[in-house]
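Q: Predict the assembly, please.
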Amino acid sequence: MAIGLIVNPIAGMGGSVGLKGTDGKEMQARALVLGAKPHCLDRTRQAMETLAAAFPRAEIIAAAGRMGADAVAGLGLHTETIPLNSSPNASETRRIAAIMSKRGVSLLVFAGGDGTARDVVSATGLKTPVLGIPAGVKMHSGVFAVNPRAAGRLVADLLSDSGRRIGFRKVEIMDIDEDGLREGEISARLYGYARAPYAKLLLQAAKGRSPVYDDAALQGACNEIASEMNPNVLYLIGPGTTAKRVLTALGLEGTLLGVDAVRNGRIEATDVTEQQALQLAASGQVGIVVGVTGQQGFVFGRGNQQIGPEIIQRAGTDHITVVAGAGKLAILPEPVLRIDTGDPDLDDSLRGYRRVRVGRGQSMMMRME
Amino acid sequence: MTVESRAHPWMAISAPGVVEQMLQEIGAKTVDELFEQVPKDHYRKLPPDLPPTLLSEAELRRDLLGKLRKNRTCEEYLNFLGAGCWQHHVPSVVEEIVGRTEFMTNVWGSPQSDVGRNQAWFEFSSQLGALLNMDVVQLPVYSWGCAAGHAIRMAARLTGRKKVLVPKFIDPERLSVIRTYCEPAEMKSHIEVVLVEADPDSLCLDMEDLKSKISSDVAAVYFENPSYVGMIEAAGAEIAQLARNNGAETIVGVDPVSLGVITAPGDYGADIAVGPTQPLGVHMNGGGGVGGFLASRDEEHYVRQFNGFLVSITETMTPGEYGFGLACAHQNSYGMREDGNDWTGNSVYLWAVANAVYMSLLGPQGFVELGQLIISRAQFAASRLQSIDGVSVSSPTGFFKEFVVNFDGTGKSVAEINTGLMRSGIFGGKDLSAEIPELGQSALYCVTEIHNAADIETLVAAMAEVVQ
Amino acid sequence: MRKDSEIRQFHAAKWHEPIVMELGRPGARGQVFADPEQTILDAVGDASALIPAAMRRKDRAELPEMTEFEVQRHYLHLSQMTLGMMGISLFGTCTMKYNSRMAEIATNRPELAETHPYQPAETLQGTMEIIHDFDLILRSLSGMDQFVFQPGGGADAAYTMTAVARAYWQAKGQLGKRDEVITSIQAHPCNAATAAAAGFKVVTLPLEENGYPSVEALKAAVSDRTALLMINNPDDMGIYNPDIKEWVRIVKQAGGLCFYDHANFNGVMGKLSARELGFDACMFMLHKTFGGPKGGGGPAVGAFGCSEELAPFLPTPVIVNNDGQYVLDEDRPQSSGKIREFWGNVPIVVKAYAWARCMGADGINLASDISVLANNYMDHKLSSIRGVAKSHPDFGKWRMEMTRWGLGPMQEETGIGTVEAANRMADFGIDPWWMSHEPWVVAEPFTPEAGELWSKEDLDQWIAGLQQISDEAYSNPELVKTAPHNQPIAQIKGDWLEDPEAWAMTWRAYQRKHPASGSDASGRSSATAAAGGD
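A: Predicted assembly structure:
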């Protein structure tokens, strides 16, 4: 029962600096210039720490160095290393994934985003189950755990209870064309399928095709949010179509995919990075207005990494407004909203039940995990 | 559970042995086992204490009729009560059709399986639209007051304003319902109800007071034609124009049986029309026959504000065939939670079928004859009552089927007079003395096609005796 | 003799019935009215002169001109083109019952039909006695202290609750502050909708892993702003929330009111008491649970009952028994105000009273037993039909009186979903089913409710219908997709219904918007002839 581990060390660098991904060398360089810090290895380590604590007997087959082994070093896990042929890149990911698949690992854990998922799954197909530690900017594929710790727990559960609580299911591997995303267009493509583990629920909420029209209600909610804004507060709004309705309600244009900073009814900056937002806020109060992204119901950590842990802490839980359609919430695969801010302690402090605004005067009490 | 040895006539599975057979098929030992979800401490402590079971239809019938016979009816008594519930002739064909089990027992079928009912509903809207000269008629709501309440809320949403002008002489029952719909002042969406004075002579709307109260913060002017006290509001077009000049909606409450002879609200500027449906072929039923209609011009911004069911004619997959479906189905609360335009639910849709049959039976000439007959007899009754010493009619002309009779000159109260009339087998008019004190000892009398000249003379004779 | 496992053949009446506006001929009459008597004419003169000139109608209303028989025949045809429970209807959440013909006939008698609500109370003692006796029956079933019958349906009773809550909090001086109503996603949408229409903010609790909202979610929602909890139990999926007593405790501890929407009373009637569970108020639907006819959507009654503490805030009038004399109590200064004119749909109250008397306490208890048994019998049989999926498949316990099912697998595998299958059900004389309130949390939902009326043979027929549809979906899906085939009309086209240029809610609007298709008698008759073969 060995677990494979591959890390894409440059994944996710674009998020905090407002880039929509780091596919390609040029974007990676640009991310570094903008001050992005590689965090993929840190997030992998969070997952592996959780695994080591819960199931110290786990056996790991890791790609060498920054592509895996560094993340488990010193955790006391039995680790075998696969040497690298070159510096980390996509073809190296594919090569090592193929080796692991051939070796018959019971689960291949990788860290990265949708691009990494595509590389891994192109080598494993449906033969080897895979699990993603979320560390990219784009994570639309169904292989990702909610956050690194959840990934570690899932692996530990899989190894310890031989499948009673953990099942496997076929999930979609999706990716979005990054150029289009940067231009403000969203077009996700299905690239294939993978087999991924998941925690079984006693009662699985059935996923429905709902003909609900959230539209009018959502606009009502967004109008109300706009009308309740306090003076002199720096509001970070977005990204996504739902949050954009708040800008529309304010009579502002803004961006669809960026986080826009609004104060006193005026846009102070569009498509801001976390650092820019912190600078703009200076010592003033910060408010955050976000939608729910992705089919897994993320509030933080998917597609809006610009709203990072520091700025979330600055705002404080009372100044975070989540807005989503009631129909969308009702058909989430699990009745929870997800948070993955990158700071596990902050995630802990955000857990619990929070009101999500679904209409004028209407809210839904959702569990955050 | 013990199955009684005698099966219940309304429960097939109560026949001996069926429960046991079904339990066996599903693999359960007892019925109690099937209630495993309910915690034991949730069960009630004592069984309900109900009166003895009347399993026999004959016994049950006897119980029901024995009680109902304690009532006195408007067939035995000569009735002059109206005020929101009126005694009109109900054609027998209407009774037959609404008694049809298919119409009586159906719930929501598909547009195909219940096409007959849907067509009847469309014909309700179509015929009422022809009387109102308005293109959009919703299926009825619970009552006239509810229809007025919804219409006022529609107007508030349309205009973004929070004030409605309503005539001071309005049915207090209806006004109470309207106030419920307009919400208490503490609520954020409260709509302020401002009463417009009545002209003391004509009892119609006081135009000067209306002009002083209307402004750019008024969502709607609501008035009735004929009014609560029976008066035909001759200034309808002027009121509507005044509302329009101030950006307010005009909502008119109308009695549909008057529309053979009185101008349709669509022809004097109504944006929304409301009114009662009970006069169109529904028995009074002790007040349980009421319903309210809601109609507007066919403009999308109005249509999008309706709260209930809008039945539209449509095509089917077979060329040339009619079908019917719900238009804008997602704006009521069944389709979309929480932000539907108000809410909807079961209403009085069976009465819509009665109304449709009634309107088909009368046709255009029937409504003309009915209107002429009612106004003639009502006018006659008023003038005959006025001939009695001490009795006067507060506004002696210009009413439709109801009018205010004043007894101040008799030195007697309405209550005393009505008690006296009861002894002659007459239900006198509704006592207004408490609700409209400025009209003194007055009562609202209702005369319709069911009162012939002899009935009116009977009333006059009894009245003359009582006021002595 | 047909076997139960075989579906009965059926074809609906198909009259190709014109719209009533197309029928008749100029001058034809269905009802005439007497001319005013000569004495009247002599006294008042010409009727039209009695109307102010500006208000005299100049046009003739464009109504049909038909004989009495033609009107009767037209509407009888329409009744025949309405399936309306003539076969089998297991329309979930509506609790289809036998509607006593005797009660119908009794309420059509003049002793009820020809009475006016403002008649002196002493002339309406019979009606008041029945209403009061029925009030006592409902009090006994619920533990509440007073019922009123003014609300015209379940949603109107929910609205009554919000109005009573407003009056209650107004009296406590907390109306502006207590501005939130808590409900759950599986409660009837009217709860949320009426609360919003009454001016409250609404907090909705979602279903969680156990199949119902969690106590923790409720705790997070409850605060000193909580005015009211509006909840039903069991829900439409057949799940009973076992924490309900704890819910009530939590809300009341925060000072809030608790309302039990008894829409799903049929499975627990005679067994639970809303008051004993701690609720302050509840609602019963007399046109569902208590055997009143539905009339295609009313007249209906949502009987609203509450505790002594809330009773002063009820809408008036309340019928009171004063030493054997029944009187209308209008003098209730703290009343919420009226929800609707008069006392409610009196005939339905009388029919519900008749139902309760004929059932009796034992019959009511037996009926809830049977309805839960029959639902679990349905569940047992439905689970073996291909393409059919049960909500909460791993729940593992017997359900209450109805279960939500779905055709998700069938839809994925064959393209036949709940709408197509419901249309096809009508071809067997079975009323199309209730799907689900929105949002749909089960894919392609349908919600059968067996109730206590239907026989085992009826249930078997219904199941056989769905079995046949499943067989067809996997062998000849086109047959189901194009259904219905045995109904008065073919599938309707929906494209006019959301299009302001095309929708027509009246014949006037239809003629204006569709001049080519309207009143084209020749086109219509040829189409009718072409369709005549089926």
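Residues 78 and 369 of chain A are 30 Å apart (CA to CA). The longest strand of chain A covers residues 188-199.
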